[in-house]
Fold this protein.
Amino acid sequence: MLSFFSGIMLGLSLIIAIGAQNIWVLSQSMAGANRLALAAACIFSDVLLIILGVYAANEIKELLPAITPWLTYGGVLMLIYLAGGAAYRAYQGSSGLNAAKANAHHWKVTVTQTLMISFLNPHVYLDTVVLLGSIGALQPSPQMFAFGACIGSIIWFITLTAFSPTLKRWLSSTTKWRIFDSLIAIILLFMAYQLLNFIH
């Protein structure tokens, strides 16, 4: 269960920090786009990349056991870097989702555009595939970690699309994003500490 909850916490932290995808989802939801299709497209892309990342990293760890310390230190450094960025944003008060106005499209167009934004965003591969994958492979149960990260994705995107009018007011607040960023920094540092315990 530790792997499962670690997956949820880290998955949510990384998803919330990816601004471009969240702005797109929120603006489309506010424009009256097909919210079910929108959420499904985001969840599909996230789940696919999470499973791919964890499976690939786990296979690499099994084939090349000597790479495990490198995966660990790399994951720790990346988590500390992301935590530092979140802490700096919280200090500066520089975050906030200012969703631009958008026109509602046919659900097929919305899904296509959402998939393009998801798969063409380099941060998605760095955070979801590389970081989540390498950390997931180091967990006692990589499968449960991946499952937890997938649950985190489902929770976030269903919430973002279903409650977009309310969330727009919340997520546009600099003060509330300072709280978000502070929590994200704490969670990422906690995950880095957990990773260090694997090699000490």
Q: What stands out?
A: The chain has one domain: 2-196.
